[in-house]
Every structure is written in structure tokens, then in C-alpha cells.
């Protein structure tokens, strides 16, 4: 029959997962305290046939030390904490929740885009300090005069495109893996990365974290952007080289930024981003709504349950 083990999670409880497993008559165990390292997983999950994982690193070292594990399930879309090549080579099934938080993250990105285009955080700050008036905040452009550039054009970015069109933004996107027909379907102009950076007044990042996208936004790519561009990141922190971003925010090369993710989470207390007046910061919160988090837990649990029942999880990556 086998057993599933929850290595780590940040939910108020794992009630939903336990409900799924109890209904199927299958055992589920939570690790306490949660696993944070490879050695934690190896030490505490030796009885597991399936691992349910949020942030813990599931590497070749882990999988080779735990030969009983035949399936790993990620609470979320991204699987950059899984060493997928090793899992595949060792015959371990990997699954995620690919349709998690599409509406939530696209809403969060749009909230940041509109706030920064309208200079809302800057105006709030000046009023809180005794100031008043819009002249120091200008230029302020209407959305219909701005181009929104989307880096990656997957499910979340497509929802951003739909929502942004309501406000009148011209929209372009870069994604070499998406067919031209999809861009045409959404009425979005397809550009290569350099052309997108040069054309966009707002650049919104929606790419997964892989080797090719690590520090995709760096001093060199920032230099290709329009002066005074707005940068939004609701994807993964290491997509942006924070030192280059901070320098660009200080110089004005980037007008302002909305960041939900960071290279180090939480950011260090002395990280300059924490005190910059032209930055909106949120706590890796873009994916969160009560409904989305409940659905995430249920779908991850169902994938683990299905594997133990001898079925291929619908979200299996191979």
C-alpha cells in the first residue's frame, strides 16, 4: 500500500490532505519539525513511498538515500527545488499543481502594474511625510499610451494580457516555446527578448526559474530597456540580479519595481530594497487566496493518493 509523508508546508494545517488520505484509507504522515535540508529529509522520511513537498530540496542525494521513494509531489507550479534529471533517471515520478494560482498571480501582477503606473505608492509616501501634489510624480501616462511586455507567455502571463487589455495597454510578449498561433489568439505581439526590452514601458516577469532564466534581468539586459521602465516580478526571485536592479533603481534607469519574490527570502534586514521609495514589496504572496490554497493542498494530496493507488497522477511531469 505505501505511505505518503509531508516533508514541509506553510499552511495553517494539513487537514485537507489528511481528509483526502483518510477517505482513500491510506496513511499520511507529517514531519515535525519540517524538513529544510537534504539531510533532514533523509533522516526523517525513510519510510516514505511518496513525498509531498513545498520548499525542501529533493536532490539526487536525497533520492539515492531514500530508494523507497517512488514519487515526489510539489505544492505549487514551479519545481526548481526538485532535481528533475535525477528523479527521471532513477525512475521516480514527479508531479506538481500546474493550474495553481493563475488568477491570483495575474491579479497581483496587475495590481502592481497599475499602482506603479499611477504612482500610488510614491504619492502615498510623500503625503505621509507631509507633502502634496502630483508634479513631482510626473510623468504619469495613461495605460493606452504604454506597452506592457511579458517575459514568458504561459497561463499566468496570458491572464495578465487579458486583464491588461481592459485598461488599454498595448501588449507584447517573449516566449520562444509558445507557438505563433497562441500570440495571435490573444492579440499579443510576439517579440524576441531584446526587442521586447527595448519596446516595453513595463516589463513583467512570468518565467520559470531554470538555468537559462537565472539572472535573466541583469546589468546588461537592464541597459537594453527603455529609460524609466517599470519592472514587475511575480515569478521567482533569482530571475533578477538584485544588485543590478538596486543600482538601476538608484540611478533612475528603472523608474520603479514591484517585487513579490527575492533572491533571498525574506530579504536581509539591510537589503536596500526594503527602504526604497520607488519599490512595492510583498511577501511571496501573489499566489495566495483562501480558495487557491485549499485547492492547492487538495490537488497535491490527490496526486500523491493516486500514485499510491497505482494510478498515474494527472499532473505527472513524465
Summarize it.
The chain has 318 residues and is of the alpha/beta class. The protein has helices spanning 15-24, 38-44, 60-65, 84-89, 102-117, 120-128, 155-167, 180-186, 193-199, 219-223, 242-251, 290-308, and strands spanning 4-6, 28-30, 50-53, 71-74, 93-95, 147-151, 170-174, 189-190, 202-205, 229-233, 254-259, 279-281.
What is the strand content? 5-15%
Beginning-to-end CA distance, first to last residue: 22 Å
What is the number of helical segments per DSSP (H or I, 4+ residues)? 12
SSE order, one letter for each helix or strand: EHEHEHEHEHHEHEHEHEHEHEEH
Overall form: elongated
Quaternary organization: single chain
CATH superfamily of the largest domain: NAD(P)-binding Rossmann-like Domain
Assign the CATH architecture of the largest domain: 3-Layer(aba) Sandwich
Structural class: alpha/beta
Count structural domains: 2
Q: Would you count the extended β strands for me?
A: 12
- Specify the helix fraction band: 25-40%
CATH class of the largest domain: Alpha Beta
Widest beta sheet: strand line-up: 8-7-6-9-10-11-12
Compute the average pLDDT. 97
CATH topology-level name of the largest domain: Rossmann fold
The low-confidence runs, each spanning 5 or more residues with pLDDT under 50, are: none
Main sheet characteristics: 7 strands, parallel
Radius of gyration: 21 Å
Amino acid at each position: 500500500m505505501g505511505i505518503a509523508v509531508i516533508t514541509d508546508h506553510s499552511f495553517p494545517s494539513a487537514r485537507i490532505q489528511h481528509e483526502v488520505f483518510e477517505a482513500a484509507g491510506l496513511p499520511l504522515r507529517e514531519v515535525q519539525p519540517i524538513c529544510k535540508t537534504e539531510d533532514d529529509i533523509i533522516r526523517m522520511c525513510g519510510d516514505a513511498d511518496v513525498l509531498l513537498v513545498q520548499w525542501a530540496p529533493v536532490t539526487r542525494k536525497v533520492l539515492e538515500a531514500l530508494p523507497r521513494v517512488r514519487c515526489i509531489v510539489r505544492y505549487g507550479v514551479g519545481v526548481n527545488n526538485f532535481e528533475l534529471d535525477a528523479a527521471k533517471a532513477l525512475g521516480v515520478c514527479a508531479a506538481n499543481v500546474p493550474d495553481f494560482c493563475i488568477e491570483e498571480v495575474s491579479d497581483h501582477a496587475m495590481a502592481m502594474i497599475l499602482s506603479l503606473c499611477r504612482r500610488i505608492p510614491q504619492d502615498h509616501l510623500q503625503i505621509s511625510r507631509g507633502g502634496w501634489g502630483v508634479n513631482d510624480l510626473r510623468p504619469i501616462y495613461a495605460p493606452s499610451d504604454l506597452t506592457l511586455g511579458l517575459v514568458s507567455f504561459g497561463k499566468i502571463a496570458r491572464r495578465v494580457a487579458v486583464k491588461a487589455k481592459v485598461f488599454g495597454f498595448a501588449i507584447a510578449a517573449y516566449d520562444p516555446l509558445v507557438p505563433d498561433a497562441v500570440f495571435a489568439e490573444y492579440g499579443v505581439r510576439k517579440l524576441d527578448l531584446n526587442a521586447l526590452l527595448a519596446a516595453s514601458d513595463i516589463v513583467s516577469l512570468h518565467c520559470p526559474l531554470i538555468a537559462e532564466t537565472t539572472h535573466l534581468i541583469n546589468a546588461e539586459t537592464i541597459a537594453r530597456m527603455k529609460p524609466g521602465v517599470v519592472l514587475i516580478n511575480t515569478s521567482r526571485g533569482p530571475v533578477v540580479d538584485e544588485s543590478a536592479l538596486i543600482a538601476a533603481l538608484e540611478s533612475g534607469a528603472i523608474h520603479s519595481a514591484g517585487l513579490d519574490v527575492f533572491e533571498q527570502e525574506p530579504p536581509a534586514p539591510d537589503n536596500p530594497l526594503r527602504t526604497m521609495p520607488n519599490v512595492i514589496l510583498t511577501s511571496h504572496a501573489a499566489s495566495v487566496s483562501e480558495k487557491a490554497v485549499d485547492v492547492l493542498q487538495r490537488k497535491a494530496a490527490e496526486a500523491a493518493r493516486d500514485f499510491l493507488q497505482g494510478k498515474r497522477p494527472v499532473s505527472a511531469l513524465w
